[in-house]
Amino acid sequence: MTEQGFEEIRCYNDSEVSGALERLVSEDVFLKMLNVLFPHLSTQQIVDQLLGYQTIIDFQKGFVNRFLLGLEATITKGISMYGLDKIDTSKAQLYISNHRDIILDSAFLCTKLLENNLNTVEIAIGDNLLVFPWISDLVRVNKSFIVRRGLSSRQILESSELLSKYIAFTLQGKQQSIWIAQREGRAKDSNDTTQESLLKMFNMYGKDDLITNLIRLNICPLCISYEYDPCDFLKAKEFQLKRDIANYAKKPQDDLINMQTGVMGYKGKVVYQLTGNIETELKLIAAKRLSKNEQIHEIALLIDRRIHAGYSIFNNNRIAYDLLKSEARFANEYTSADVNEFEAYIVKQISKIEIANKDNEFLRIKLLEMYANPLINKLIAIDEE
Description:
Largest sheet: 7 strands, mixed
Number of domains: 2
Number of helices: 16
Shape: globular
Order of helices and strands: HHHHEEHEHEHEHHEHHEHHHHH
Distance between the termini: 41 Å
C-alpha cells in the first residue's frame, strides 16, 4: 500500500510544508499563541521564519525544537534519556509509552533523539485534540498522524485496520520510528496499563500469526517520568466530577486547558527510559502455545512490567506512598523539610480547583495516588523480575 492510501490520517510530507505553514500564519489565534511563546519576536518576524521552512525536519529543528529547548530550560530541572544502548538505531522502532502530558511526552522525546543525532518520531494523536482546524495543520506538519475517536462499531473496525496498516507501512516502508501511548488518553491516576485493544489493532495489518506480526513492528516500551505533573489538579478535579455527575464527559475546551497547562507548567526533573526491544520475550510467549487472547494479555503485562520497572522515583513519590499508606517505609530517604514542601504543593494544587461541593480530602487522596502509583507499580515489577 502506498502513502496515498492514508490521506485521511497521515502526517504531511515535505511537499506540503509550505502550504501548511501559509495556512497557519493566516490564523490569528495561532499567531497570538506564538506571540506569547516568543515575546522577543515580532509577529512579522515569526511569520517570516515560518514561511522560510521547506522541509519537515527543518521546521522541527529550526522552530519546534528551539521552542522545546527553551521550555526545557524554564519548566524543568533538565531532561535525561537512558537506554539508547538497548536500541538498534539502524531500525525503526515502535515506542509504546505511558502517557502523562498530551503534547510534551512525544515532543521532549524528539528533542532527546535530535540531541543524539537520531531522527524524530512520528506521533499518534487523537482527533479529539484537534479542537481548532488549524491544530490539524500544526500537528501534521510536525510528523503527527491522526487516530480517529468516537466512532461507531463498524467505523472503529475500518479505522483500526487503516491505522494498523499505516503504522506497519511507516515502520517498514518508510523506516520511520513511531511514538504511541499505551492506551487511549492519559492514565489520570498514573496507574499505567496497556490497552489490549491497542495490541489487537497492531496485529490487523499482518497475514501471519500475532507474535510474528508484532515482532516485525520492533516494539520498544518507553517509560516517561515527571517529577511534577502540572495537570495533576485538573485530573483530580475530573475524578470528582466523574464521581459526582452521572455520565460526566469532558468538553473540547477541557482538552485545550490541559494542553496549555501541560505545556507551560513546571515539571521538575524529566526522565525517558528506553527499555529495548521485546522480541525475545515475544518468542517466549509464543512458545507457551496460548490462545490469541491469552497471548495479547501476556504481552500487555510484559509492556506494563517494562514501563513500571523503568520509572525514575523522586522524593515526592516516596512521600506520597508513605502518606497514602500511613507508613514510614521510605522515611530514611527524605527529610521533614521535603515532606513539608510536598504537603504545601498538594495544598496549592487543590486550591487551584474550582468546583461545586469541593471535596478536599477526596482530592488530596487522588493527588497522592497520582504520585504514589509509579512507586507502587515499580515495586511490583521489581518483585516479578
